[in-house]
Write a structure and sequence with these properties.
Blueprint (H helix, E strand, L loop, with lengths): L25 H19 L37 H37 L1 H16 L2 H9 L6 H9 L4 H14 L3 H8 L4 H37 L11 H8 L8 H38 L1
Helix pairs in contact: 1-2, 1-10, 2-3, 2-5, 2-6, 2-8, 6-8, 7-8, 8-9, 8-10, 9-10
């Protein structure tokens, strides 16, 4: 008599490991709505038939918002459509900001990884470079460069992108220095693995989540810095609009036509506050993920 094969025990639903659900905080939802409104303003308005940020019409200068269907948010002192100019300014400012953040992240993360992984004289030299860059005032440096080269968006990206990476470098340097003594890094090196392979295989994947955390919290700061430089005339030049330049040009009309300042300022507020709200959620989730990975390694 042969024994009947045992049927596999039913798997309980509670024994299946499931990834934790992402629960958005109310502040993160508000932040997403804020960012979405700014992105929609930059992406959708240029598709509308009446989009024209440059044409001047002095006969329609300083029209109030919602007074003319052809100019929903009114016009500026030169009769240019304010909705179109704010939309284009949003694209310009956000584009410059993202370019600066990406450049900062690439430079800072690369320097931090090399400094922390190799150590020695290279770490000392990069540490001196970081302290030197940190001591340079960005605005004064940009003013000095603009005295020789005319200001432009590309110049702003290069100057700010090459002087704001120290935070990335310091964080990634500490992480890389801690990882280089771990078994999963030491073992391949002792078996003859190439250092570049170890860097790309084991160091970079453990560093880039921290870089994303810094970048997420850095976007709002870069927006304010870039807009401040535009306010001083050290960025995009007329007639191309930007938030800072629009506020600077409109401040003389603040007593009589305050919407000229309020509208670009409100757009900037939505972008900065929205990024801050979302970055808090993103930072909390990323840190929780890193802690879970560290606990299960």
């Amino acid at each position: 008599m042969t024994a009947a094969p045992l049927a596999p025990a039913p798997v309980s639903a509670t024994t299946i490991a499931r990834p934790p659900r992402l629960r958005l905080r109310p502040s993160a939802v508000v932040g997403l709505v804020m960012i979405g409104s700014v992105v929609a303003l930059a992406a959708i308005v240029p598709l509308l038939p009446g989009f024209d940020p440059f044409t001047q019409d002095l006969s329609r200068a300083l029209q109030k918002p919602f007074a003319d269907p052809a100019h929903l948010l009114g016009t500026d002192p030169l009769g240019r459509d304010l909705l179109s100019r704010i939309s284009l300014a949003s694209s310009v400012t956000l584009g410059i900001t993202l370019a600066i953040v990406v450049l900062n992240a690439l430079i800072g993360t690369t320097i931090g990884i090399l400094s922390g992984f190799f150590g020695g004289r290279l770490e000392a030299a990069l540490s001196v470079l970081s302290n030197t860059v940190l001591a340079m005032p960005v605005v004064l440096l940009l003013i000095a460069i603009c005295a020789v080269v005319s200001p432009s968006a590309a110049l702003t990206i290069i100057v700010v992108g090459c002087t704001w990476w120290v935070g990335y470098a310091r964080v990634t340097r500490n992480i890389a220095a801690a990882l280089r003594t771990q078994d999963f890094v030491v073992a391949p090196l002792t078996h003859g693995a190439d250092r570049v392979w170890v860097l790309t295989r084991h160091i970079v994947p453990n560093v880039w989540p921290h870089t994303l955390i810094i970048a997420a919290t850095d976007i709002a700061t870069i927006v304010l810095i870039e807009s401040s430089l535009e306010y001083l005339g050290l960025g995009v030049q007329p007639p191309t609009p930007s938030w800072g330049a629009m506020i600077f040009d409109a401040q003389k009309y603040l007593a009589t036509d305050p919407w000229l300042v309020i509208l670009p300022g409100l757009t900037m507020f939505l972008a900065v506050a929205g990024v801050q709200f979302v970055s808090q959620q993103f930072t909390a989730e990323a840190r929780g993920t890193l802690l879970r990975k560290g606990g299960t390694r």
